[in-house]
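ok so for the tutorial part 2 we go from a plain amino acid sequence to predicted structure tokens. step 1 is just haveing the sequence, like this:
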Amino acid sequence: MIFDIPIQAFLGQLLIGLINGSFYAMLSLGLAIIFGLLRVINFAHGAQYMMGAFAGYLLLATFGIGYWPALILAPLIVGLASAVIERLMLSRLYNLDHLYGLLFTFGLALVIEGTFRYYYGSSGQPYAVPSALAGGYNLGFMFLPKYRGWVVLASLLVCLGTWLLIEKTKLGSYLRAATENPTLVRAFGINVPLLLTFTYGLGAGLAGLAGILAAPVYQVSPLMGSNLIIVVFAVVVVGGMGSILGAVITGYLLGLLEGLTKVFYPEASNIVIFVVMAIVLLIRPAGLMGKEA
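step 2 — the prediction. this is what the tokens look like for a chain of 293 residues:
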């Protein structure tokens, strides 16, 4: 017992918090990449997350393509579709005030969500757990579903791999340089517009990957992104706008905090992340790991 709370309930909520934190981390990672490298507040990120879940669902329902191939195809579909949108429309707004990019992506999110609601309704569609990950492990003090464990592991690997790509590789250095001094980068013969398109497609693809991972956990619904995006924005603000490492660490920590709050004070579990955001902004406006202007 922890403060008269059964240990099973306590650990169960910690697991739920860790699972939610895995999705928060992946989504906030994509947001941080897009804002940090493109200076675009991507309000369509929740819609791209939903598109990833629907891509997996439609690949299965229409073409009989199962979970494992969809785990690769769904992020590619979302990333490529988003790259086309960036090249044709969003790229025209880079030299304008950041507000224009925010308004465009907000409108884009409404269009995507409205289209899926028109064709599939709002009730949601089930997506089965792959047979290889069905069942779970009895740990004695709790039952751990295999798929939930896979989500946490996959999220950790994706976040670590993306951070290494951006911070430790030549491609990542090109991406960072292209946003800070595009004229100089062009002088070295590097295609800067292509790099920016790749960056937006990468961030959107991470959202799509989170969506296909979430499909067996939650129902595949046009509303699944809009229900999550505000929380993810709060996570990014707490970690520091544009800070990739801050977004990942804060995503996991706030997911765990949300799970603990459900144990000790359930009524506050829906607002605890926003309370933390308000406190952090009062003490450190740039976020925990963000850079001061």
